[in-house]
Amino acid sequence: MTGRAGEEVAFQYLVKKHGVKNVKWVNEDGETGAAFDMIVKTESGQQEFVEVKTTRSQDKDWFEISAREWEFAQVHGDLYTLLRVILPNSEKRLQIIRFSNPVKLCRERIIQLAVILPFSGTLGMSVSDLQIGGTGSPQGIQVSTYKVTLPDNDK
Question: What is the pTM of this model?
Fold first, then answer.
């Protein structure tokens, strides 16, 4: 529901900025699985692909982007935009943050990528499931556990 609400807000924002004839909401009738949510016809006649990421938390400074979305962003460069929609709560106003060409922004260290480990329920696994020889371990992920004694720095 949060994602859908964010897409509605983004659609209204883009229509106000570019006109209703120049904005196509790809997911208006349901999720399509595309690497973007909207297509905007720019003033120069090119198509800009817009992916919307929504939260209700003013303090959440991260969001997930799929490998497919990132790969699409790499190919389309300046024609790929992320819109971060922060829905209002009772005290705050709605915010939209625009990241044009997020791959370039990442290369310039303006934004960062992060890896999220599949522990604590992300993929329904625990660290013990991922131990070498564990039965549920996805290919390419291994966790080794070692017991070490660290020096006491308080002395």
Answer: 0.77
